[in-house]
Specification:
The chain is an all-alpha fold. α1 runs antiparallel to α2. The protein is built from 6 helices and no strands. The protein has a single domain, classed as Ferritin.
């Protein structure tokens, strides 16, 4: 990989995010299936719909650039999802497992927030205002999803929250 320009970095990072989003779109149904909480299942399914829209946004940006979105493998997301798979396959108290699923999902969100924040900044610097606007929409969604996951864990959508239900035994 060679970075001869900010555009090179921008395109490489967009391709990395494109691969990451595809990996996430395959992982979310498994996470929803593994969750015991109806609210958590719904949150994962809602984020799957958002992820599909985010993939379309990335495809639009690549189309506007006259480039193909493929070409990068997001090794970081592969590792984060591998850890998430361990949670999916774990046994034990369903409330504790739900808390672990939230942790795994927030790791995904934080990676995406970092990536989208960077590429949005690059797009602005490069004068790609349409791309920057699309990337900002995705960045806003990722932040909102992270906040919703926090509320699930802390009790915003539950009487006591998943983490309280997951006794401190």
């Amino acid at each position: 990989m060679m970075y001869n320009s900010l555009k090179d970095l921008f395109v490489e990072q967009l391709r990395d995010l494109y691969d990451a989003e595809h990996q996430i779109s395959r992982a979310l149904p498994k996470m929803a299936n593994a969750a015991s909480s109806t609210e958590l299942k719904e949150a994962f399914n809602m984020h799957l719909d958002q992820t599909r829209t985010q993939i379309q946004r990335l495809e639009r940006i690549f189309s506007d650039l006259g480039m193909a979105p493929q070409g990068e493998n997001c090794e970081a997301m592969k590792g984060i999802i591998k850890e998430g798979d361990q949670v999916i396959n774990a046994q034990g108290d369903p409330n504790v497992k739900d808390a672990a699923l939230i942790t795994a999902a927030q790791r995904v969100e934080h990676y995406e927030i970092a990536g989208y924040g960077s590429v949005r900044t690059y797009a602005k610097e490069l004068g790609y205002s349409d791309a920057a606007d699309l990337l900002q929409k995705t960045l806003d969604e990722e932040g909102s999803t992270d906040s919703k996951l926090t509320k699930l864990a802390e009790g915003g959508l539950f009487a006591k929250g998943i983490n309280e239900k997951a006794d401190r035994r």
